[in-house]
């Protein structure tokens, strides 16, 4: 049986090299927590995402096609009976990506799909995910994988549809559905709801950045580290935090 692991990024792919697991590796290189998520078809979706990634993150159209779309085509074309393990963390960044993947898999009932959870971490470090996991911990995480039922798959697809359609009432309702394949779902969905105020100053991530700036923290590396420590639930990388910081500075400039 083919056993394929869909990973949440290249860092985890590097970590897995030390683990003795018989897995084919596919890497999901996207950040669907930022930017547009519209498009009636697969092609339209990636045309929209491609424009966003090239304009905001400096990617080329060829890079988007080769590093992201081509990898996902491997998942879309999987044959019956393949075991697919989804290695995604519990923060919002990873969860939105996971919901998207589940929406792609919802019409493939013959696949055997599993969720691989990160190793348990102390409460103060619970959003670190796979970052500090040893090869032995990764092997144990795989052995402890949880099977997606049809209900779980449907929940993931519905979460994605609510997210991409900005149906925040439905997202809140869905977040309360119990599932062994999701952790901290209600808390994570609430973190998303806390991002969407019309007033940027009332959005949770921007509020934290403004607080850090008010404390005199202007060095980006320190600001990013402090933000990640306080708001690990978002799972933002430096690109997302810099995007927020640039937006705050732009708004402040427009007011002056």
Walkthrough of the structure:
The protein is of the alpha/beta class. The chain has eleven helices and five strands; from the N terminus they run βαβααβαβαβαααααα. It has a five-stranded mixed beta sheet. Strand 1 (3-7), helix 1 (10-16) and strand 2 (24-27) form a beta-alpha-beta unit. Helix 2 runs antiparallel to helix 3 and helix 9 (204-214) packs across helix 10. It is globular. The model has no long low-confidence stretch (mean pLDDT 92).
Structural descriptors:
256 residues, alpha/beta, 5-stranded mixed beta sheet, 11 helices, globular
Secondary-structure-derived class: alpha/beta
How do the strands line up in the largest sheet?
A: 2-1-3-4-5
E-strand count:
5
Q: Could you tell me how far the N terminus lies from the C terminus, measured between alpha carbons in angstroms?
A: 63 Å
Helix content: 40-55%
Radius of gyration: 18 Å
- Overall geometry: globular
Count of individual helical segments: 11
Question: What is the typical, i.e. mean, pLDDT?
Answer: 92
Strand content: 5-15%
What can be said about the biggest beta sheet? 5 strands, mixed
The helix/strand order is EHEHHEHEHEHHHHHH
**Low-confidence segments:** none
């Amino acid at each position: 049986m083919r056993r394929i692991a869909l990973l949440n990024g290249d860092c985890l792919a590097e970590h897995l090299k030390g683990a003795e697991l018989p897995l084919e590796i596919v890497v999901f290189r996207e950040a669907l927590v930022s930017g547009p998520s519209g498009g009636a078809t697969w092609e339209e979706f990636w045309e929209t995402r491609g424009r966003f990634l090239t304009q905001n993150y400096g990617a080329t159209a060829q890079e988007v096609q080769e590093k992201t779309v081509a990898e996902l085509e491997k998942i879309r074309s999987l044959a019956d009976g393949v075991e697919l393990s989804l290695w995604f963390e519990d923060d919002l960044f990873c969860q939105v990506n996971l919901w998207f993947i589940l929406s792609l898999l919802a019409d493939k009932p013959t696949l055997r799909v599993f969720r691989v959870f990160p190793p348990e971490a102390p409460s103060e470090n619970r959003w670190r995910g796979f970052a500090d996991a040893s090869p032995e911990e990764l092997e144990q995480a795989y052995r402890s994988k949880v099977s997606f039922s049809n209900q779980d798959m449907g929940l993931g697809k519905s979460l994605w549809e609510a997210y991409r359609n900005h149906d925040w009432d439905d997202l809140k309702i869905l977040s309360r559905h119990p599932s062994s394949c999701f952790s901290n779902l209600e808390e994570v969905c609430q973190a998303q709801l806390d991002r969407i105020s019309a007033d940027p100053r009332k959005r949770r991530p921007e509020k934290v950045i403004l607080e850090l700036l008010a404390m005199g923290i202007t060095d980006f590396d320190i600001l990013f580290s402090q933000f990640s420590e306080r708001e690990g639930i978002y799972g933002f990388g430096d690109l997302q935090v810099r995007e927020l910081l640039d937006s705050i500075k732009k708004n402040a400039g427009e007011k002056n």
